[in-house]
Specification:
It is flat, with a radius of gyration of 34 Å. It is of the alpha/beta class. The strands form 4 sheets. A 7-stranded mixed β-sheet has the order 6-7-4-3-2-5-8. A 7-stranded parallel β-sheet has the order 12-13-11-14-15-10-16, sandwiched between helices. Strands 17-22-21-18-20-19 form a 6-stranded parallel β-sheet, with helices on both faces. The protein binds adenosine-5'-diphosphate and magnesium ion (MG). Adenosine-5'-diphosphate binds next to helix 17.
Length: about 800
Amino acid sequence: MASSAGLEALAAVLRPLEFAARDDFAHLERVRDLERSVRIAAETAQRAALPRELRKVLGEIAAAFAHPLDAQSRRSATQRALRRLAPFASPEYAERALAASPACLPGVGPKRAETLIRRGLDSVQALLFHLPSRYDDRRALAKIGALEVGRRATFTGRVLGCGFASWHGGRGRGGRMFEAVLGDDTGTVTLKWFRGGEAIARVVQKDALLVVTGLVKRYRFSKELQHPEVERLESGSEHEAVAARAQIVPDYAAPEGVHPRGLRRAVQGAVSDYADLVPGWLPDRLVRARVLPSPSDALRAIHAPEASADVEALCARRTPAHERLILEELYLLELGLALRRERGARAPGIPISGDGPRTRAALRALPFDLTGAQHRVWRELRDDLSRPHPMHRLLEGEVGSGKTVLAYLAAVACAESGHQTALMAPTELLAEQHHRTLTRLAEGHAADPLRIERLTASTPRTHADAVRAELATGGVDLVVGTHALLEAGVTFRSLGLVVVDEQHRFGVLQRAALGGKAPVEPHTLVMTATPIPRTLALTLYGDLDLSVLDELPPGRQPARTLLFREGEGRQVAELLRQTVARGEQVYVVYPLVEESEKSDLRAATESAERIRASFPDLRVDLVHGRLDAASRAAAMARFESGATQVLVSTTVVEVGVDVANATLMIVEHAERFGLAQLHQLRGRVGRGSKPGTCALVARGVTEGSEARLAALLETHDGFEIAEADLRIRGPGEFLGTRQHGRLPDLRIADLARDAKLVAVARKAALDAVRRDPGLSREPDLARAVRARWGPRLALADVG
Ligand code: ADP
Ligand code: MG
């Protein structure tokens, strides 16, 4: 493990040399066949995919040991060989070589190197891991007469005629192009180049025999290919030449300004000169159990597949070679997370008892009994809090599963031990909502209520100053706020617990910033109602322990979900009428996409007007992101108290609103929401004892949105829905644009496609760190993890 095929080949050369040199060459004469073993090992290493400079040295060594030597020259040859190899025989050399500029590759001049670097292919390594986006199967050569329009094909033919011509594209467009007519015994086809004709003209000449690959198009009554890849067959019979090229040719997504052929040559150069320097870190046991090739063999199998390879599996990235590279990548990531987690677990923390009389009294004073799931999670929290190390726990639970109560109990325990709690919500609205809920819970425990304050950007200046002062002296037990809590100027007397609600809107960095407000790292509880698919949980939150509230408070029933299409507005209006006639309330939600904020706001406003016009005796409110906090809070309060029956809003009610009498959720433009979002919205109704209904109104559906909506109608399981969402939209979309910075920038692995491998890598990483805390026995591996993930995971001081 931990080594590369190249370094192992070098070690095989070094071993006999080092043995011979030991104890001032005392063993020199005792090594049998020194010359032969060194020569064979050097020749073998020379054939490996290693940099030229190194292969040259190996060649010299093989030559120096080609014949039996006398004692004197044996000694000097050994000394010299050891000296020559010394700079190469270390993982640091391999790292440096792989990080070198593409300019060091054969056939890559300074100009091409510069373009590659500008496009992010800035090292040998980057090229090695720039995997083909597809493959051309040149094993099956097409006949020109049988070329199919609309498909890529590879075929051979002789140039019957060629030259420059002008073309006219209508509306005054036009220019010069290079054109060639190619024929075989079944027909002819035209090849066209609208750019770069001069260079092509040097290759494509009359009577030349070409292998052509490209997309076949129809042009009037004939077939043509534009900018195909061509290769000229030099000599020998047509058949032989073609047979020699019957292969599977990788095709790379070339960034703008990079020629695909040039890129392929650069990648092939990287493979032939550097592949054997690529280290493999996976535990041997795992490699053997899954029968995986070495990383260098994997790179070769992917960049230069054998003629017998399975093209479909290659294209789908589902070969053992791909599995090896994907697992290698995920393993380093999971090791990084495991190290972070391990470090967290070792750090000094503030032990807090969750069993004191005040906490037990607060528990008894709750207006309801905890559900079984809440009891279980409360035990997990109590366990964590009582340890002398900071808690790092993620609490997942569907909307309405009762997470806030757990945060409340933890805050009481914290206060009882003499420490403070900060609760951060992603929006002011949510912070206000939490503040109300928590204050109500605290009032229920009148004997010894928790002292709660709120602090957001719109807290009046004087009040904010007072809250800050109280936080500094310890006059406040729990402060609820937004990112304003992160500002300098907020200090705590003793911050013991940080609760972050709806975590996936915050970055790891923000979590770190709040943590930094205390001399000893406080406990962290992250709460989210968005069910996070396991794969993402294991990567984005791999440093956290997981608690799941998988049970809703008694009496809740899942909302009935109905799908309406454009033109079925009357039925939706009828649902609304029936609901308000029963004295229940209604949400109408419009999507808010940042770039079209104005038009969405207009849609919501018009909708509110329409509802007011059709139901003159209803009270209808409109809430959107542009309202100031006070008006928003007032509107929410009116809805909560039942003063308004219909709340029209942009997505602000997505999180945290809790109105038991609201039983109908109308989601307009449902096709524009993500699955997880829709599921959350649906969770807003049916929160009391009355059954809820969610009416999804889809206007203009695409294939993807159709799949999403279908998944939502099928199941109520948030985790299943989240998995489906991740599959349909991919991780970037799933987390939303705001989350991009949180996604690990994986080169090859795909969190949606490779879900199973994430779990495999995760387990291997946890095992490794458990057996070897801090990876102290594998410094090279620890360094590789830091090099790849250190900055992103704040791992600087690990290992
Ligand atoms: P979440 O934050 O998980 O969406 P909340 O903590 O806001 O859920 O709880 C939702 C509602 O359920 C609140 O009105 C809360 O008072 C109520 N609730 C929480 N736990 C229970 C329980 N065990 N029994 C009955 N009602 C509960
Ligand atoms: Mg909540």
